[in-house]
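The aim of this short unit is practical: by the end, you should be able to scan a pair of folded records and say something sensible about each. We start with the first protein, listed as its amino acid sequence and then its structure tokens.
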Amino acid sequence: MVNSEVILSVYIITLVIGFPANLLALYAFSVKIHVKANPTDILLLNLTVSDLLFLLSLPLKVYEADLDMMWKLPEFLCSLTTFIFASTIYTSSLLLMAVSLVRYIALAFPITYHRLHKPVYAVVMSAVIWLISFAHCSITIITQHHPSLARETPDGQAYACYANFTEKQLDVVLPIRLEVFFVLCLVPLVICVYCYVQCILILYSRPRISRMQKQKAIGMALGTLAVFLICMLPYNISHVVGFIEGRSPEWRYYVLLLSTFNTCIDPIIFYFSSSSFHCNSKKSIFRKRTLTVSELQNQGTGSNPG
């Protein structure tokens, strides 16, 4: 039996901490992008929007938990809330992957980074990420409303939202969850691990970078990886377990709480991203390297880079 009081407590704590923190992050990134946009800030702004969208739907989940995990609101709100929950979780994982790629390219391939350092590329990348996430998570709506899968719910009767699936629904939901695990969790995780390990190795191979800068950058990289491993991986492992067992495990509710609390951790990552990996900061590792390459290009061409 699921302990709804634990779930309710985590939801409330997440709202109280996460909402103001992400509002502050939204304001900070909006100001920075207005002054001078760069790919990392645009991606982190999208990550903030994703977290806020998640938090805006959380009051409905609070109401659900307060009713002992029973849904008494209109059915379309159940579908909408589930869709927002799922899509924003995977949008966040894909955006964290994109940020790790940008940082790796900036350190390992500064000339390439300088050529691709245009806000439009980050905007397109963000749009593609949102579309991929929405397309995969549309299953939460299809399962409940497709004529061949939907089941009748008497008006006004409480029921478990997006749970207690029929055999037909499980035949669709479980394989798609398994595919989501590989495409939207495992692949981004592997890419993040590779990019940040390479970033750490590159940082330690450059003696001109101060020890403090290295420690801040490495701490931020390890923090991002920790978010993936602690907040996102357990929930996605439940997809694999559910596929093997042929049903949704009850402990999914608890590991989903880790993904929920991630919205409180993201603003901390944003802070360190701005202070240690920010591409336009005067003390940025990336800026030092990129400017050096730009100067070499100026010497060879006699013109300023675009």
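Turning to the second protein, read its sequence before its tokens, just as you did above.
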Amino acid sequence: MISSIHRPTVARVDLQAIKDNVVNIQKHIPTGTKTYAVVKANAYGHGAVQVSKSLLDHVDAYCVSNLDEALELRQAGINKEILILGVLLPSELQLAMTYQITITVASLDWLEIARTMALNLEKLKVHIKIDSGMGRIGVRSLEEADQLIAGLQEMGADVEGVFTHFATADEADRVKFQQQLSFFKELVSRLADKPRLVHASNSATSLWHSDTVFNAVRLGIAIYGLNPSGFELALPFPLKEALSLESVLVHVKKISAGNTVGYGATYVAEQSEYVGTLPIGYADGWTRDMQGFSVLVEGQFCDVIGRVSMDQLTIRLPKAYPLGTKVTLIGKNQQEAISTTDVASYRNTINYEVLCLLSDRIPRLY
């Protein structure tokens, strides 16, 4: 999708805020802990290349979801370690080795395929994944983990790390978290050949369970200034939200009582009122369920009326504003603000999804 640079809808990304968030979190975790910045999914919609470059002096390595995300960073000149968190099939290993990309291996089935293919893994750096209770990928027993590490080493791989992922680290109830943590700690302590890096801490664990950090952390949503729990848990220290979303009024009109607005005529004016149109819609990631939410115009909350269209949405205005008047969908506007988490709460989803749905059609300005 082409970036619509000639349309006045933009996402502004404060790279200094991201750097400040990383530094602030690092102050609250053990000194010497290796820091991975998670920049998968285009850095949660913020721009993977730009964010990664801005953090070169602040983090030790990066985490991505897949090989193509890793290659994007390499092609942009990022030379630090990159760890792929998802599963890379053995048939795709050559590119990973060529570009010195660290991969995750999560099963004995994967190892068996690599053996069948008689692959030489001497240039491959690997982290193995333990499924401690998340239920997605990873081996589930000490025996499997030992076999996996030994088998990879026999094929020449450098098994640098072992890690897991917590399902409920962002929730107030700690029962499931403690079960996973105990399982992982016990398994790692009994490994026949323990890798030099051990990590289990995502953003939530780093924020609320910093006493459980091993010797590396994977910092995701928190570095972008957002609370992993939404509104469930209070942040232990302040973070700066890095992304704001803005547009402008491109059309303003006065309608009469009884007039309808939008597809399906779902909005009917009860009285004479002003309506403004913004050039942003569900193709940009501002989804149809945002009807009834509010945006900010000159510090005033203005309701979204009528269904959100593919490319446009309409809002009720308190008065007639000039064309080109700024409208804030996420961020500060005078003394008021709308956070990504506010948007997520209205949609009954999480702030991660709100950011990741912002399409490439919206230019990112840094």
